[in-house]
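Duplicate of #3305? Posting structure anyway:
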C-alpha cells in the first residue's frame, strides 16, 4: 500500500508522525528501472537538487523544483513520462513548532502554490494545514522550516489523475 494511502487526510493535516519516508524523484520520472545512473539530469538541473544514489536518480529537497523540465530533456533513457507530476507531496509532523505553542508561518509564506493555510485554534498558535490536492511537491517549504518538521510522502497517483 502506498505510504500516502496508509494515513488519513486528518492525520496529515494534524501533524501526526509521518509514515515511512519516500525517496523522491524528479517530476515525471516514472520508469526508474530504465535509469542507468549516467547523471545527465543531475548536471542539467539548474536548482542542483538531483543526485545519483545506487545508480538511480534521486531528488534532494534542499531547494525548490521549478518544474523546468531540464532533467527530462537531458535524460537519454526512457525514464521520464509526459507528465511532470511529482510522485510525492509533503506532510507536516508533530515537530512543527506550533504544536509546542510557538507561532510560525514560515511554510505558509514560502509555498508558491498557496497550498498551506493556517487554521485558527483556541489557546494556541494557528496550525499549518496542507492541501494535498494543491501541493505540487516542489519542496520550497522543506528547507525553510526552522524545526525540520516537513517531510516527503508518496503521492497516491490515482488521486493525481
Ligand atoms: S524539473 Fe528542473 S528544477 Fe526540477 S528537478 Fe528537473 S531540472 Fe531540476
Ligand atoms: S515552517 Fe515548520 S515549524 Fe513553521 S509552521 Fe511550517 S511546519 Fe510548523
Ligand atoms: S511542497 Fe511546494 S506546493 Fe507543496 S506545500 Fe511545500 S511549498 Fe507548497
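Output from current build:
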Amino acid at each position: 500500500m502506498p505510504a500516502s494511502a496508509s494515513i488519513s487526510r486528518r492525520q496529515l493535516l494534524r501533524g501526526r508522525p509521518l509514515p515511512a519516508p519516500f525517496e523522491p524523484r524528479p517530476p515525471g520520472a516514472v520508469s526508474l528501472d530504465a535509469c542507468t545512473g549516467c547523471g545527465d539530469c543531475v548536471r542539467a538541473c539548474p536548482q542542483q537538487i538531483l543526485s545519483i544514489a545506487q545508480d538511480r536518480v534521486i531528488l534532494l529537497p534542499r531547494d525548490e523544483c521549478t518544474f523546468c523540465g531540464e532533467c527530462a530533456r537531458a535524460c537519454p533513457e526512457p525514464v521520464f513520462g509526459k507528465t511532470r507530476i511529482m510522485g510525492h507531496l509533503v506532510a507536516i509532523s508533530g515537530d512543527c513548532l506550533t504544536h509546542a505553542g510557538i507561532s510560525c508561518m514560515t511554510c505558509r509564506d514560502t509555498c508558491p502554490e498557496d497550498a498551506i493555510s493556517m487554521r485558527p485554534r483556541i489557546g494556541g498558535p494557528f496550525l499549518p494545514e496542507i492541501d494535498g490536492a494543491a501541493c505540487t511537491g516542489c519542496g520550497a517549504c522543506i528547507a525553510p522550516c526552522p524545526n525540520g518538521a516537513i517531510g516527503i510522502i508518496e503521492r497516491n497517483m490515482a488521486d493525481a489523475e
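Confirmed duplicate; merging threads. The two ends are 18 Å apart (CA to CA). Residues 90, 110-111, 113, 115-116, 130, 135-141 surround iron/sulfur cluster (ligand 3) (CB under 6 Å).
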